[in-house]
Design a protein that fits this description.
heterodimer, A: about 325 residues, mainly alpha, globular, B: about 450 residues, five-stranded mixed sheet, four-stranded mixed sheet, 18 helices, 11 strands, about 45% helix
Chain lengths: ~325, ~450
C-alpha cells in the first residue's frame, strides 16, 4: 500500500519532464501493483503447498516424522516406485482406482453434458412454467453437497432406502433388494449422485451459451426448411463450441477429483468398484499415515491432469482455428 | 467455490501448517512444555455422549469447578469422532494444538510414535496420584509396552453381549449363550420371519477390528508379531475372521443388510425387536434414547468356546476406552497436569463415568455403588479379567483400515450370496498385509 502512493506523490515533480511518462508508468505499474496481493495469495495458497507436496513425495513421511517433517529421511524415488509398481498391492490398487476413476469420469461427464444440454435446448422456447422448471433444475446446484449426498446415502440403503422401495417393492423390477452402497452396484450409486449433482452446472452454462446465438439464424434456417434436429446440428452445437470446450474441461477436472461424493457416500474406505483416486489418495495419506506415498500419488495425479488438460486444449483450439479458417 | 474438496482443504491446511512449523521453528523443538501461559488451558474432548451439545452440558459444570479450585480457565472444544484423528494430526504437524486432549486408546502407540505427546513417566504419574490408581488393562492401552505411556486412561469400556428379553422369550430361550456354539444354535431358532439373531456393523472398520481381534485371541492369533510386524495371515487370524463373517455367510444368523451398517443401525434394529443380540460396548444410554426401558434387555459376557471368559484363549473383549493426553509443547504444563489430575480424581471419575455410562479406569472410583448395575458389573469384570488391549504398535491405525476393510469386503460378499471360504478369507488378509508391508 505504501509503495502504491509513490508514483502519485512524485507526480508533480516529474511534471516538467516528458509529459507522457508518469501516465505510462502509472498505466504499466499500477495494474501489476493491484495484482500483487492476488499474486502473493496465489503463491501462498496454491504454489507453496504444491512445492511442499512435491517435497513430501520424496520423503519417507510416516507417523514417526509428522511432528517434524523436515527431519523425515529422503527416500528418493521410492514413493513413486511403490505407487507405480503395478504388480505390488499398493500400485495395483492405485491403478485399479485410476481406471475406475477414468470410467466414472467419462460416464459422469458424458451424462451431465447430455442431460444439461438437452434441458437447456428444451428450455429455450418460452412456455408456461419455464421459470419454475429453470429454478427446479438448479436445486441440486444450490443444495449443500454434504447434506444432499447424505440424503442419497439414506435413499440407497438396502433395507430402508427409498430406491429399493421403489425398484423392488413397488415396481418389482428386481428379484431381491440389491445393495447399493457395497459391492459392484456402488459404482452405479456413485455415478447417479455425481450426475445428479453435476448436470445443473452444464445446464446453466449451456443456457448462457444459447442466449448468445442470434434468433435470426434459426429463423433463416427454418425458412430454408431445416428441421429441429438439423438446426441443433448445424447451428446450436457449432455455435456452442467454445462454451463446450470450457464446460467439458471443468466438468472433467471436477469429476476426476471429486472427493465429497464418495467420502460422504461410503466413508473412509470406499467399495472397490467405486474406489475413486481422490479417496484412495486420502486413504493412503490420512488414514494409513503414509504421507510420502500419498504425496507421490498426488503428484502423479497432478501430472496426469496437466497432461490431459494440455492435450485437450491444444486439440480443441486447433479445431477451432481450422473451423474459423 | 462450493466444490472445495475436503481433501484439498485438508492437504492445504496440512501444507500451510507444515510451512508454519518449518518457518516458525520453535514448535518442532523437543522439551516438555512451559509455563508461559499459566491461567488458561485448551481442552479437546472427544464426543462421548449422544451429541456434541450433550457433552458440553456434562463437561462445562465440571470445568467451572476446576476453575474455581485452581483459577485456571479451560477452553473446551468437543470434537466429533470422525474429525478427531485428522485434527490431532494437523495439530501435531503445526504444533498449534490444544494443551490437553482425549484420544481413542487404540491410537495411543501410533500417536506416541509421532513424539507429540507428553510421556507419562514416574514423575508425571506421581503428580496425578501414581500409576497404581489405574486398572492394569487400561494402562496397557496407553502406549507401547516398553515405553512410558503416552496418555492416561480416562473412560473405560468393554464389549458385552446385549440380548433382547422379549425376542428370547418368543424363541423359547431362557438364558443368554455362553459359548459360540450355543450362540449359533440359539441364533438359528431366532432367525426367521424377518427377525435375526445377531447384529453387526459390517461397514464400520473399527467395529470389525474390535470383533475379530477378540476372536483372534480365542484362536491364538495376535495380528502382530512380538516385534510389531503385521501378521494377518496366520491360521488363527484367518479362522477368527471366517468365524465372524460365517455368522452371516454360513450360519445365517446375521441379516445380510448389516453388511452396509456403519452408523449403529444394528442398535436401532435391536430396540425395534428385529435383532435379538448385539456385541457392544456400554450400550445402555443408546437403548434408552431409542425408547427401550432397562428391563427389556439383559447383558452377559461375550461368548468364548469354554464358556468361562478369562485370559489368553478365553479373551472376550478388547480394552475399549478413551485416554487423556497432554501435548508436549503446551504453554501450561503445570496446569495441564493439574487438569488431568482433576479429571482422573475419584470424585470426577464417578461423576463423568456415570454420565457417560462407562466404567472408571480408576480403581477406587469403580467401588462406587453406582457402578453396581448388572450391565456395568459385566463390563467391569470383563475389563478386569478377560479383556486385552489392541496391539500397541505404531501402525495400529493402518491395521484398522487394512483388516477392517478386508472384513467389510468379506461381509459384502456374504451379503451378496457369494461363498466365503478359508481361501477367500486368506486372500483378503494377504492383500491387507501386503498393503502394510509395502508402504
Amino acid at each position: 500500500m505504501h509503495s502504491a502512493k509513490e508514483p502519485s506523490a512524485n507526480a508533480p515533480e516529474t511534471e516538467r519532464g516528458p509529459r507522457r511518462r508518469p501516465g505510462r508508468l502509472r498505466r504499466i505499474g499500477l495494474p501489476y501493483l493491484l495484482l500483487l496481493p492476488a499474486l502473493l495469495l496465489e503463491l501462498l495458497v496454491h504454489l507453496l503447498p504444491i512445492v511442499i507436496g512435491i517435497t513430501m513425495s520424496f520423503k519417507e513421511l510416516t507417523q514417526f516424522f509428522i511432528r517434524d517433517w523436515g527431519a523425515a529421511p529422503w527416500s528418493g524415488l521410492d514413493n513413486y516406485e511403490i505407487a507405480v509398481d503395478f504388480d505390488a498391492p499398493v500400485g495395483e490398487a492405485l491403478l485399479h482406482s485410476f481406471l475406475v476413476t477414468c470410467a466414472f469420469t467419462l460416464l459422469s461427464v458424458g451424462l451431465c453434458w447430455l442431460i444439461g444440454t438437452t434441458a437447456a435446448i428444451y428450455l429455450q422456447e418460452t412456455f408456461k412454467g419455464r421459470g419454475f422448471l429453470r429454478a427446479l433444475f438448479l436445486v441440486p446446484y444450490a443444495l449443500p453437497v454434504y447434506a444432499a449426498v447424505i440424503t442419497w446415502g439414506f435413499m440407497f440403503q438396502r433395507d430402508n432406502g427409498l430406491i429399493n422401495h421403489v425398484l423392488h417393492d413397488q415396481l418389482g423390477l428386481t428379484d431381491s433388494a440389491p445393495f447399493w452402497l457395497i459391492g459392484d452396484n456402488s459404482f452405479v450409486a456413485l455415478l447417479t449422485v455425481s450426475v445428479w449433482k453435476g448436470w445443473p452446472f452444464a445446464f446453466l452454462i449451456m443456457m448462457a451459451g444459447l442466449q448468445n446465438i442470434p434468433r435470426e439464424m434459426y429463423e433463416a434456417a427454418a425458412l430454408d426448411g431445416a428441421g429441429m434436429w438439423q438446426q441443433i446440428r448445424r447451428i446450436t452445437l457449432p455455435s456452442l463450441r467454445s462454451v463446450n470446450q470450457v464446460l467439458v474441461l471443468v466438468l472433467f477436472l471436477w469429476t476426476f477429483n471429486d472427493f465429497n461424493t464418495p467420502y460422504v457416500l461410503f466413508g473412509r474406505s470406499a467399495p472397490e468398484a467405486a474406489d475413486l483416486v481422490s479417496i484412495h489418495i486420502y486413504q493412503s495419506s490420512f488414514v494409513t499415515w503414509n504421507f510420502g506415498t500419498g504425496s507421490a500419488m498426488s503428484v502423479l495425479l497432478l501430472l496426469f491432469l496437466l497432461a490431459v488438460t494440455g492435450v485437450y486444449l491444444w486439440v480443441t483450439s486447433r479445431e477451432r482455428k481450422s473451423a474459423h479458417v | 467455490m462450493r466444490r472445495f474438496r475436503a481433501a484439498a482443504v485438508g492437504a492445504a491446511t496440512l501444507s500451510l501448517a507444515l510451512t508454519a512449523s518449518a518457518c516458525g521453528g520453535g514448535s518442532t523443538s523437543g522439551g516438555g512444555g512451559s509455563n508461559d501461559s499459566p491461567k488458561t488451558l485448551t481442552y479437546w474432548a472427544s464426543n462421548q455422549g449422544p451429541n456434541v451439545e450433550a457433552d458440553k452440558k456434562i463437561l462445562k459444570p465440571e470445568l467451572a469447578k476446576f476453575e474455581k479450585q485452581t483459577g485456571i480457565k479451560v477452553k473446551l472444544e468437543v470434537v466429533p469422532w470422525s474429525e478427531l484423528l485428522n485434527r490431532i494430526l494437523t495439530a501435531t504437524t503445526s504444533g498449534q494444538g490444544p494443551d490437553v486432549l482425549n484420544i481413542g486408546n487404540t491410537w495411543s502407540a501410533s500417536l506416541q510414535a509421532s513424539g507429540a505427546l507428553l510421556p507419562w513417566d514416574e514423575k508425571n504419574f506421581d503428580k496425578i496420584g501414581g500409576k497404581d490408581r489405574f486398572v492394569e488393562s487400561a494402562l496397557g492401552s496407553a502406549g507401547a509396552p516398553d515405553k512410558d505411556p503416552a496418555a492416561v486412561p480416562l473412560y473405560s469400556m468393554a464389549y458385552a453381549l446385549y440380548y433382547n428379553k422379549k425376542m428370547f422369550d418368543e424363541a423359547g430361550i431362557d438364558k443368554p449363550p455362553a459359548t459360540w456354539d450355543e450362540l449359533v444354535e440359539d441364533g438359528k431358532k431366532i432367525s426367521k420371519g424377518g427377525k435375526w439373531a445377531l447384529g453387526a456393523e459390517g461397514a464400520n472398520l473399527s467395529n470389525n477390528i474390535h470383533q475379530v481381534f477378540a476372536l483372534g485371541k480365542q484362536h491364538g492369533a495376535d495380528f502382530f508379531t512380538a516385534d510389531g510386524k503385521a501378521d494377518f495371515t496366520s491360521d488363527g487370524a484367518v479362522a477368527a475372521v471366517k468365524q465372524y463373517v460365517d455368522m452371516m455367510a454360513k450360519d445365517k444368523i446375521i441379516a445380510p443388510g448389516n453388511a452396509e451398517y456403519a452408523q449403529n443401525q444394528s442398535l436401532s434394529d435391536f430396540a425395534k425387536d428385529k435383532t435379538a443380540m448385539v456385541l457392544w460396548q456400554a450400550a445402555a444410554t443408546t437403548f434408552k434414547s431409542q425408547g427401550m426401558s432397562d428391563d427389556e434387555w439383559g447383558v452377559a459376557p461375550v461368548p468364548v468356546d469354554s464358556g468361562a471368559p478369562g485370559a489368553g484363549k478365553a479373551t472376550n473383549s478388547m480394552v475399549a476406552g478413551i485416554n487423556m493426553a497432554v501435548f508436549k509443547n503446551t504453554k501450561n504444563i503445570d496446569g495441564s497436569l493439574k487438569f488431568v489430575k482433576f479429571m482422573t480424581s475419584d470424585a470426577e471419575q464417578k461423576i463423568l463415568c456415570k454420565s457417560y455410562g462407562s466404567v472408571p479406569p480408576v480403581k477406587a472410583a469403580q467401588e462406587d455403588a453406582a457402578f453396581d448395575r448388572p450391565e456395568l458389573k459385566v463390563l467391569r469384570d470383563t475389563l478386569a479379567k478377560s479383556a486385552a488391549p489392541l496391539p500397541q504398535v505404531p501402525n495400529e491405525s493402518q491395521f484398522e483400515t487394512a483388516v477392517g476393510t478386508a472384513v467389510k469386503n468379506l461381509f459384502a460378499n456374504a451379503a451378496d450370496g457369494r461363498e466365503v471360504t478359508t481361501a477367500s478369507v486368506k486372500a483378503e488378509l494377504v492383500k491387507a498385509q501386503q498393503q502394510m508391508s509395502s508402504q
